[in-house]
Amino acid sequence: MTNNKELLSWVKKWEDIFKPKNVYWCNGSEEENQDILNYMVGNGSAIKLNEEKRPNSYYFQTDDSDVARVENRTFICSPLEEEAGPTNNWEEPQRMKEKMLKVFSGAMQGRTMYVIPFSMGPLKGDKSYIGIQITDSPYVVIHMRIMTRMGKEALDVLGDNGQFVPCIHSVGRPLKEGEKDVKWPCRPIEEKYICQFPQTKEIWSYGSGYGGNALLGKKCFALRIASVLGKEEGWLAEHMLILSLTNPQGEKKYIAAAFPSACGKTNLAMVIPTIQGWKVETVGDDIAWMRFGKDGKLWAINPENGFFGVVPQTSMDTNPNAFLSIQKNTLFTNVGLTPDKDVWWEGIGYNAPKGTLNWKGELYDENSDEVCAQKNSRFTTPLNECPVIDPLYNSPQGVPISAILFGGRRPTTIPLVYEAKSWNHGVMIGSVIGSETTAAVIGLKQGEVRRDPFAMKPFCGYNMGDYFKHWIDMGKKTQKENLPKIFSVNWFKKDENGNFLWPGYGENSRILAYIFDRCNNKDIAQDSPIGKIPKKGAINIEGLDVKSEDMDKLFEINRTLWKEEIANIEDFYSIFKEHLPEELKIELQEIKDNINKN
User: Fold this and answer.
1) What is the DSSP string of 122-165?
2) What are phi and psi of 506, to 5 degrees?
3) By the number of CB atoms within 10 A of the CB, which of 41, 260, 334, 435 ranks highest?
């Protein structure tokens, strides 16, 4: 176990509060993992999948009310509401703790209290942090084993005097003596709480057993709490993929990229280039922790150890590397289940076998409006299952970042790719990314942009205006030539008939190749009112069925649309009041002046 007195005292305190049937310290071994899986299969909360088709893989169904993040029940509990800022739900820390201690009291009666030691980042890495999660969910234990470096080794790193981030979790369903458990214990949505306490670096979560609500190493620790640590210690915790790109000459560069949800982050992280001689490898698809190294360059690690990816539309056509990553040693949640105990989802590439059950356990009817796999259904698989995992994915030093990309779903206005003129200009681009709404979104005007700054709006642990300022301050920590170049990308621009102008998917490697060459300062860019855009012919479109006039449309700067864009950004910036950095106002004014020039 451990001789860490602070940890032992903390665990005892929570044992007294939760009143579990027993306490179990997780060691992370294969034997322990198998014991928990066998227990879950035995009680009906897990199904072992067909060993021949899907070796060492398991299937889970959640409750209907517990299928996604619950942002309206997620709170930043800082002493002052202003510290949480306008993009977060806020509650006063002491008041929230009093409220939660009432529901935590006796919440684990009849259950096992698991103590999970885990490392975010490679073990013993100087960029890594140790967390300890207490939970009463075996589902959480087996998922944390994949998503983090979990168990005895993490406890050894903590040692007798090490500090840890305390993570408290309960599904909130105590069991009376002799009471039969439900398949997926949880609380109704209005009784769920996912709380971050930035001042004390604590996470308290109650009532949900799913995803980032319960796997507290993920968004709660690796982004909300880590973003606060980063601000205090001078580094960045970001909702970004990390990939490596190697050109035909064998030169390699690393790129980080932030996109809001449904913008193809995992697809880009594992993209297969369509241009000859180029290679992409994956470091991570979701989170990047970035610090400046002794060489003055920005170095990144992926603090996670697994992928927790959305399943629907994953196939050999859309993302072969993701599809190949989930053939074995994978946990599936809320997908369809075939009669021979394999999994199925929309977009897998073939029809559902007759007799397939949907994610609710009902017979799937392909003619019905009901989906088979829930839209947020997930796979959980180790990083090393990915066939294109980068050799340095587990390096404690991380990888040097040459470029940072920001993007969203923008059918109009934003070019296919453009480059920031400076670090501050790049911060401005990141601060206003988002996606345009469609007619399918009820209550929002078509074409309205939902801003998701740095793709961090749900995940920033403090006032986002101060977060923008932290990014600007980071740019002062090294020489300009050491800073990564920053780009905006937009795969989703459409023509006047609503057709995509760019084919996307593997063809996005052509844009990555252009970015790679710009990182080598190749003279292939030209000035525009909004930043640097590619010179004509700078993007390799050989073999592509993209007309010259379509390429022109992809890089058109429509001044009328940009005037609307600037007005919209000014409205968005106004919510941050005095917390909005002056530098961003200056950058926006420069673009406004450029657009208004004849």
Assistant:
1) STT-TT-EEEEEEES-HHHHHHHHHHSEESHHHHHHHTTT---E
2) -60, -25
3) 334
Q: Which fold has domain 5-46+73-234?
A: Phosphoenolpyruvate Carboxykinase; domain 1 (3.40.449)
State the average pLDDT over residues 327-334.
98
pLDDT tens-place string over residues 392-427: 999 999 999 999 999 999 999 999 999 999 999 999
By three-state DSSP, how is residue 427 classified?
helix
pLDDT-derived band at 190, boundaries 50, 70, 90 = very high
Q: Is the pLDDT of residue 437 over 80?
A: no
- Among 26, 167, 195, 263, the one annotated catalytic: 263
Give the per-residue SS3 of 1-21.
Answer: CCCCHHHHHHHHHHHHHHCCC
pLDDT in tens, 205-228: 999 999 999 999 999 999 999 999
Contact 80, 67 (CB under 8 A): no
H or E, element range at 89: strand 89-90
Domain ranges for the chain, please list them: 5-46+73-234, 238-305+392-596
**Single-letter amino acid code for the residue at 546:** V
pTM attached to this predicted model: 0.97
Q: Is 186 a catalytic residue?
A: no
DSSP three-state, residue 245: strand
CB atoms under 10 Å from CB of 576, counted, come to 22
pLDDT for 441 beyond 50: no
Distance CA 2, CA 13 (A): 16
The pLDDT score that the predictor gives to residue 214 is 98
Question: 298-301 and 288-292 as β-strands: parallel, antiparallel, unpaired?
Answer: antiparallel
CATH 3.40.50.1980 fits 238-305+392-596, yes or no: no
Distance CA 264, CA 314 (A): 11
Give the bridge partners for 196, in sequence order.
76, 203
The count of C-alpha atoms lying within 13 angstroms of the C-alpha of 160, restricted to the half-sphere facing its C-beta, is 1
Intrachain domains 5-46+73-234 and 238-305+392-596 with the same fold = no
Burial of 354 (0-12, 13-18, 19+ CB in 10 A): exposed
Q: What is the DSSP secondary structure assignment for residue 389, as one 8-state letter?
A: B
Number of Cβ within 10 Å of residue 452's Cβ equals 22
Q: For tokens 């429509």, name the residue.
A: 558
- Helix then strand then coil, in percent of the chain rounded to 5, is 30, 20, 45
Rounded to whole angstroms, the Cα distance separating 521 from 532 reads 12
Using CA atoms, how far apart are residues 36 and 263, in angstroms rounded to an integer?
Answer: 35
Q: If you write DSSP's letter for every residue of 460-472 in order, what string do you get?
A: -SS-HHHHHHHHH
CA distance 193 to 162: 28
Q: How far apart are CA 58 and CA 49, in angstroms?
A: 5
DSSP characters over 393-411: TT-TT-EEEEEEEEE---S
Residue 357 DSSP symbol: B
3-state SS class at 489: strand
List beta partners, residue 132: 117, 166
